[in-house]
Amino acid sequence: MSDRLLGKRVLVTQASDYMGPATVELFEAEGASVVADNQPLDDADTCRELVARSGRVDVLIANLASPNFSGTEVTALDDTDWHTPFSLLVDPLHFLTQAVLPQMIERGAGKIVVYGSATALRGLKTVSAYSAARAAQVGYVQAVGVEVAPHNVQINLIAQNYVENREYYPPELMQKESFVASLKRQVPAGRLGTGFEDAAFALFLASDESGFFAGQAFPFAGGWVQR
Amino acid sequence: MSDRLLGKRVLVTQASDYMGPATVELFEAEGASVVADNQPLDDADTCRELVARSGRVDVLIANLASPNFSGTEVTALDDTDWHTPFSLLVDPLHFLTQAVLPQMIERGAGKIVVYGSATALRGLKTVSAYSAARAAQVGYVQAVGVEVAPHNVQINLIAQNYVENREYYPPELMQKESFVASLKRQVPAGRLGTGFEDAAFALFLASDESGFFAGQAFPFAGGWVQR
Amino acid sequence: MSDRLLGKRVLVTQASDYMGPATVELFEAEGASVVADNQPLDDADTCRELVARSGRVDVLIANLASPNFSGTEVTALDDTDWHTPFSLLVDPLHFLTQAVLPQMIERGAGKIVVYGSATALRGLKTVSAYSAARAAQVGYVQAVGVEVAPHNVQINLIAQNYVENREYYPPELMQKESFVASLKRQVPAGRLGTGFEDAAFALFLASDESGFFAGQAFPFAGGWVQR
Amino acid sequence: MSDRLLGKRVLVTQASDYMGPATVELFEAEGASVVADNQPLDDADTCRELVARSGRVDVLIANLASPNFSGTEVTALDDTDWHTPFSLLVDPLHFLTQAVLPQMIERGAGKIVVYGSATALRGLKTVSAYSAARAAQVGYVQAVGVEVAPHNVQINLIAQNYVENREYYPPELMQKESFVASLKRQVPAGRLGTGFEDAAFALFLASDESGFFAGQAFPFAGGWVQR
User: Fold this and answer.
1) Residue A1, pLDDT score
2) What is the DSSP letter of B192?
3) For testing the chain C interface, which of D75, D106, D151, D227 should be mutated: the one with the most C CBs within 10 Å?
4) Judging by beta carbons within 10 Å of its beta carbon (0-12, 13-18, 19+), is residue C35 exposed, middle or buried?
5) CA distance C22 to chain D (A)
6) Which of B103, B119, B1 minimizes the C-alpha distance to B60?
7) Pairing with D73, which of A192, A196, B225, D101 sits 20 to 30 Å away (CA)?
8) A128 → closest Cβ in B74, B134, B140
9) How confident is the model at residue B165 (pLDDT cuts 50, 70, 90)?
10) How does residue C168 score in pLDDT terms, banded at 50, 70 and 90?
11) Cβ neighbours, 10 Å, residue B67
12) Do A190 and D150 touch (CB under 8 A)?
């Protein structure tokens, strides 16, 4: 490893979940000083206090997770489950972003990288609330991205699917022949992405190399969606 | 006019606002029986009761409006304004859709047309909350669209911008030379779309002619965004 | 049927192939005067002469077909087959468009509708040359669309797949259980689109109702691709 | 610099033009062994011979340039200029790709990175032929990308615009106030991208870090187009 994040202070939310562990490991190896936070981010004040407490934040990794209620048809979704992905994925993205932007704008430099979902870009059945919330993240990133670009602050999103993850893809599932076959049918790459590959893309977006992207959502799904 | 909606019962929400008047006029001219509702749709039960009270609904026109807070930078957005577009645009879309789908699925036929926004597809500054909510509509439509397509129910969205509208574009603005010039610079068509053109596209999507679209967002913005 | 094309002169190319027959039938029923041409359009002069000979053309339907060489891996594609889709799909689109635009621009009104392919929007294996040529059509329509929009001329494209067609889907294939099952798996709508549905969308794009679209590619594929 | 391409043999075409110099400099600094070719690639055999002569090619950088004839309306484009961008941008992309894929498939590893254009993704007036050819590159990459992904070969494209380049943006233009102002109006980032930033993205796509992208076109244009 080299020093692509040397001297950078990076705040990673929900650092034990989702893409948190792979991110923290790689970013520290690249020289970053990582604030790995683990609390639930369920209201605006918690988000604001986290940012306030974190001091200088050169890079915010918005790593937010939510149940997707996959398998529940839209007609059967209960009202609580409808709201859950918005509360867990969209509200904290905004409150964290809003809290961290002033210091980035003042310094004329900053990066926000969002681990999002490819379900925002391609329709899948029985994930309506989750897909809507993931799409809200994309719309938010697009709008804020062009707004803060003149300040040399970049916010971009990784629209991922089929990435290794013990919760969605437990080892026993990964060994089933039928799962391996369906993966080859659904995903051009024929396999799951690794946490390292995902974090490596986040690293690229978090580093000084990526100053000319603005408010973009990048499919990261082995070709399952391309744009 | 012909009878492209003859025998269809159409529920139009917020019928006096946004694209409501143009829609009701054209749809009635095309033979539809229109339920033109005007109440605020600010909670789940109101949405459910509206659908229950409307009897057979062959076509739902989800015409939902919200302030967009244009001009407010994301760092200055207050918490109430953050939530407003989600409450006015996304929640009622879901509760109306969820309430109307069972009868459509049972009959094996139905159309839902959403008047959405092109800000879901192209980033604009100082409309972060609104853009996020409009993008949530797109993500919702994409996911629900593929879920209900096998039942011969189609849900699609018009992603519009630069459409005539007395609130956004009052007559005195329309006559300013600087506005006319900026329109020619921003919008390839060089003019605003008319309410009739917008309703004519909704008519196409509401009619039996459009059974092979599923969960799509169509830019309708004079070329300001193309995909 | 009504008179949505009353008084319009429409030129349909390769009128016996691909979407030609469905288009001619519907457009004539809607009051158009149709010039149904059937010659191969294999060079610039043939395209120019066809337009010159056709007199006033209010609407050009660019209905162009090509073998897609499906099943041939890119490494096995021979040089002639590489060039074929460009010669049959892209060159004549340009030469026809270039020849017909001056009269449309002069009148300040005109429509060009291109029957294109959804393979331009979503990658499929073993159709590399065809997909590239179909994407070239999309890029051409996007660029020309914004260029001619100020003249009130609209050029748009139907990005279709899974539409009924005796060559790609002969009756014996349509009756195979395995084909029906694969259709349900691949296409959210669970069926092929009909020629009528396809022509009905072309009718919408050819009529006076669609003046606020500019250079767009519309997926028409039962949800197989949504944007 | 680190060794992100250590041990890789990289073929860069037209190495003195367009993004060639920035690419060669960065890739060599990252440990690659670069074959920097400079001949015109104007027929299939030249492409094949170049690849044959280059030995092992782990990474192909398809750096192809063409005049764009910007300012020439589509009605004024002459037949030679229509064909030029296809001959210079699309044909050699195919012949190079076709020639290099067998060795990559045999090794079960390889990367092809295409320097393309954002004009493929967003319509611009008076660049019709160029935009069509750039879109053909995108369609080709999408199709070939899903075809070769199962072999662990990745082909992806950088859809760029507003990148520093002495031919398009000579120093005297860059110093004009009116140019600087128009840049701020057109491009959210408010500036041109640098050759280093462009090459840094190509480096990411050429390295072992990017194995889970397949046939994608990535906007690289300071937010001028986002998807």
Assistant:
1) 53
2) P
3) D75
4) buried
5) 28
6) B103
7) B225
8) B140
9) confident
10) confident
11) 13
12) yes
> Which pLDDT score, from 0 to 100, does residue D110 have?
98
pLDDT band of C166, cuts 50, 70, 90: confident
Angstroms from B211 CA to nearest CA on chain C: 7
User: Where does the pLDDT of residue B126 fall: very low under 50, low under 70, confident under 90, or very high at 90 and above?
Assistant: very high
**Do A128 and B105 make contact, defined as CB atoms within 8 angstroms?**
no
pLDDT digits (tens, 9 = 90+) for C52-70: 999 999 999 999 999 999 9
Q: Do C226 and A123 touch (CB under 8 A)?
A: yes
- Looking at CA atoms only, how far is residue D154 from chain A in angstroms? 9
- Tell me the average pLDDT across B169-186: 92
Count, residues in chain B: 227
Closest alpha carbon within chain B to A216: B123
The pLDDT value given to residue C1:
54
pTM recorded for the entire structure = 0.98
Nearest CB among B74, B102, B133 relative to A147 is that of B74
This complex has an ipTM of 0.97
H helix intervals, A30-127: 44-53, 79-85, 91-107
Helix, coil or strand: residue A31 = coil
Contact at CB, B215 and A123, closer than 8 angstroms:
yes
Please tell me chain D's helix, strand, coil percentages from 3-state DSSP, rounded to the nearest 5.
50, 15, 35
Query: How many angstroms from the chain centroid is the CA of residue D162?
Result: 14
d(CA A152, CA D176): 22
Q: What is the mean pLDDT of each run of 10 residues along chain A (227 residues)?
A: 91 96 98 97 96 98 96 97 98 98 98 98 97 98 98 98 89 92 95 97 97 98 97
Contact D157, D133 (CB under 8 A): no
What's the angle, vertex CA B71, arms to CA B70 and CA B73, rounded to 5?
Answer: 105
What residues in D contact C44, CB-CB < 8 Å? 79
Q: Nearest CB to B227: which of C3, C201, C217?
A: C217
Q: Report which secondary-structure segment, H or E, holds A217.
A: strand A217-220
Q: Is there a contact between B28 and B46 (Cβ–Cβ < 8 Å)?
A: no
Asked whether the predicted pLDDT for residue B1 surpasses 70, the reply is no
CA distance D72 to chain B (A): 17
Contact A131 B139 (CB under 8 A): yes
Contact B122 D226 (CB under 8 A): yes
